């Protein structure tokens, strides 16, 4: 049980890290857009209504927002980025509905699960009857859900004290590698999503990690993988862990009443110039410290949009290269060659936090001193590849599947700039990756050692309405492709 391990509790790191800035600010969040124009109207609103308005102003539908608030708990429990992650996961489930014309995703997944259970040689064969009953119970009982542990440190994060030894975990029989695999998705999903994902991925328990333990920005993600968890090591140098360490110049302008030490989850869109202008105007009315209500308004905007202080009364969203740095990518990784700033933020906002993923993948360095063959699904801008490269793990052959041409260009240019000697095969769509094709590639490269992927998540697609039905879908069709391809690779690897 993740929550109750005493060793992990000790790993709670120092109090300076367990800042609760992102845990509870919604209970006093005001509707900042209309705060100045329409104070009368919003002051009569409940906290819940204010949060709804805030989310609506960010482009979500009220329906999406209220469903997310139902699922993530009351205002005092969920932070804004948790809520947006949750909406985003719901949109993913909804997209899955559209993608599978004949069937509800959940139903399709459960059918598939049934098939799995029945299939000979399936890993489920080896499970005891007792366990199988357990699964059925899980399907029937919606209240029995995977819980997200606090602090969100998974099986451990790099830290200096001895007490940070990770506890052991026993992978379910039949789930062990090779081939190894690593699956990522947002931690805060609609109810039951992680249970479904886990059930498919050989009943492995997710490892939930907030990247705030690796860098100066929060990023709450779940990872399901069958990698060993002992002898992990972090990328060096360790990245700065606080905003001030990451951006020393901001220190000069940072007011004492803005107590943030970490940024919130980096999103795919940034705050507008209009908004930072409005904040400057609001602050310019006061010679010294602004009154409390103005401080609160500014703090809320800062948290919502990850603003940093760049001058007197001047706030700004992060620049693309600053986001690259926070996420562990080389500077200019997403820059140039006709890529717009909007696209850069979008690609970065969807990517892995490299230091976090590298920590988990580091164990492969001992296992594969000669390098690995990688199947990279939903490669994006290559978070996994950058992590492996920075760990010094040679990429012998990479089959990269990524639908966005912008992302493929970014990734290919990184591949060339880092003088990769390996072989890169690019395919746009996971749907093109069938058993036949996989078999051919596996024959020619000698099989895959690692299958990596994080299902997509369309952030801020405000027009994408979510119905209660859609949420029942629970899972995205693209996750299903991840599972389908992984399972084929595992099957074919065993036949070799
Ligand atoms: N882990 C990646 C980003 C994952 S975001 C990184 O580190 O950058 C999910 C990615 O899946 C997006 O880049 C999106 O373009 C891609 N994608 C969406 N649909 C796809 C499909 N059908 N086939 C392949 N890739 C797809």
List keywords for this structure.
9 strands, globular, single chain, alpha/beta, 20 helices, 40% helix, binds S-adenosyl-L-homocysteine, two-stranded antiparallel sheet, 496 residues, seven-stranded mixed β-sheet
Explain what you see:
- The structure is a single chain.
- This protein has 496 residues and is α/β, with parallel strands linked by helices.
- It contains 20 helices and nine strands.
- It has helices at residues 6-10, 39-43, 47-57, 62-72, 80-99, 105-118, 129-140, 193-200, 243-246, 273-284, 292-305, 320-326, 341-349, 354-361, 364-367, 383-390, 405-417, 435-445, 468-472, 477-495, and strands at 180-186, 207-210, 220-225, 308-311, 314-316, 372-377, 395-401, 423-427, 450-454.
- It has a seven-stranded mixed beta sheet with strand order 2-3-1-9-6-7-8, with helices on both faces. The protein has a two-stranded antiparallel sheet with strand order 4-5.
- Strand 4 (308-311) and strand 5 form a beta hairpin.
- It is globular, with a radius of gyration of 23 Å.
- Bound molecules: S-adenosyl-L-homocysteine (SAH).
Mean pLDDT: 78
Ligands present: S-adenosyl-L-homocysteine
Strand tally, please? 9
Given as residue ranges, the uncertain stretches (5+ residues, pLDDT < 50) are 1-41, 95-107, 116-143, 458-475
Rg over C-alpha atoms, rounded to the nearest angstrom = 23 Å
> What percentage of residues falls in helices of 4 or more residues?
40-55%
What is the overall shape?
A: globular
Q: Total helix count?
A: 20
Termini separation comes to 36 Å
The major pleated sheet works out as: 7 strands, mixed
**Structural class by sheet pairing and helices:** alpha/beta
Tell me the strand percentage band.
Answer: 5-15%
Query: How are the strands of the largest sheet arranged?
Result: 2-3-1-9-6-7-8
What is the string of SSEs from the N terminus onward?
HHHHHHHEHEEHHHEEHHHHEHEHEHEHH
């Amino acid at each position: 049980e993740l929550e109750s391990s005493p060793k992990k509790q000790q790993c709670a790191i120092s109090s300076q890290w367990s800042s609760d800035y992102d845990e509870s600010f919604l209970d006093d969040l005001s509707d900042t857009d209309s705060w100045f124009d329409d104070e009368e109207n919003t002051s009569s609103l409940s906290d819940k209504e204010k949060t709804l308005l805030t989310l609506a102003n960010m482009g979500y539908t009220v329906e999406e927002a209220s469903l997310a608030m139902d699922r993530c708990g009351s205002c005092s429990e969920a932070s804004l980025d948790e809520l947006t992650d949750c909406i985003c996961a719901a949109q993913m489930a909804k997209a899955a509905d559209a993608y599978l014309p004949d069937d509800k995703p959940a139903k399709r997944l459960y059918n598939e699960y049934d098939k799995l259970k029945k299939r000979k040689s399936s890993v489920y064969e080896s499970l005891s009857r007792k366990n199988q009953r357990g699964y059925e119970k899980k399907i029937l009982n919606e209240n029995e859900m995977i819980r997200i542990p606090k602090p969100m440190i998974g099986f451990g994060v790099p830290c200096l004290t001895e007490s940070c030894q990770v506890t052991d975990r026993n992978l379910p029989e039949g789930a062990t590698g090779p081939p190894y695999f690593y699956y990522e998705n947002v931690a805060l999903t609609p109810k039951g999503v992680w249970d479904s994902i886990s059930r498919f991925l050989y009943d492995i328990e997710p490892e939930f990690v907030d990247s705030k333990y690796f860098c100066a920005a929060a990023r709450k993600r779940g990872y399901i993988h069958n990698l060993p968890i002992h002898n992990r090591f972090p990328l060096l140098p360790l990245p700065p862990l606080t905003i001030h360490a990451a951006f020393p110049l901001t220190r000069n302008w940072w007011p004492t009443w803005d107590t943030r030490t970490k940024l919130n989850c980096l999103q795919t869109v940034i705050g507008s110039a209009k908004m930072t202008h409005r904040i400057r105007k609001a602050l310019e009315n006061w010679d010294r410290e602004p009154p409390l209500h103005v401080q609160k308004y500014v703090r809320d905007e800062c948290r919502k949009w990850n603003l940093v202080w760049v001058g007197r009364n001047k706030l700004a969203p992060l620049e693309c290269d600053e986001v690259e740095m926070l996420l562990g990518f080389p500077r200019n990784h997403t820059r140039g060659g006709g890529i717009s700033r909007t696209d850069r933020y979008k690609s970065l906002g969807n990517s892995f936090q490299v230091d976090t993923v590298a920590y988990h993948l580091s164990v492969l360095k001992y296992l594969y001193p000669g390098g690995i063959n990688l199947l990279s699904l939903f490669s994006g801008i290559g978070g996994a590849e950058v992590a492996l490269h920075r760990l010094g793990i040679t990429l012998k052959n990479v089959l990269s599947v990524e639908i966005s041409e912008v992302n493929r260009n970014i990734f290919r240019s990184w591949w060339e700039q880092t003088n990769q000697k390996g072989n890169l095969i690019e395919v746009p769509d996971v749907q093109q990756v069938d058993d036949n094709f996989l078999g051919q590639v596996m024959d020619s490269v000698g099989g895959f050692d690692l299958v990596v992927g994080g299902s997509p998540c369309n952030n801020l697609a405000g027009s994408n309405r979510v119905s209660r039905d859609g949420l029942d879908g629970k899972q995205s069709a693209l996750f299903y492709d991840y599972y389908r391809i992984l399972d084929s690779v595992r099957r074919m690897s065993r036949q070799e």
